[in-house]
């Protein structure tokens, strides 16, 4: 009976650490989605491709908000650092929305200029949480 309990406890601990690792990987995957779409948005001269890249960035940011970056795994889900992490993604989503509005209004050059400013948000939050 004691061995069975030890095996079950060990299995539970392994599953817990695997889930924590998987959550970090999900955030990593979402960040990769943001980065690859951002690269496309900055390079393209096609307004439709630009808007599609922004949509991909927004989807990645929304997905990242659901997870926990590896650096914050030991932080409480409702703690100040996690709240700030999600706030950074909210800022990015707002910036993406602003660039989308400019692109929709036919102001492609202004939209691309707005997208260039996403780097500031990325740099500020990567310093804290990457």
TrEMBL record:
Q: Which GO terms describe its biological process?
A: electron transport chain
Q: Which SUPFAM superfamilies match?
A: Cytochromes
Q: Provide the residue span(s) of the region labelled Disordered.
A: 57-78
Q: What Pfam families does the record point to?
A: Cytochrom_B562
Q: Name one GO cellular component term.
A: periplasmic space
| Cofactor(s) recorded in Swiss-Prot or TrEMBL | heme b
- Residue span of the signal peptide, if any? 1-22
Is the Signal keyword given for this protein?
A: yes
How does the cofactor attach, per the note? Answer: Binds 1 heme b (iron(II)-protoporphyrin IX) group per molecule.
Keywords, ordered alphabetically: Heme, Iron, Metal-binding, Signal
Q: Does the keyword Iron apply?
A: yes
Q: GO molecular function: any one?
A: heme binding
Quote the record's binding site residues for heme b. Answer: 31, 126
What does the UniProt function comment say about this protein? Electron-transport protein of unknown function.
Q: Which family does it belong to?
A: Belongs to the cytochrome b562 family.
Annotated protein name in UniProt: Cytochrome B562
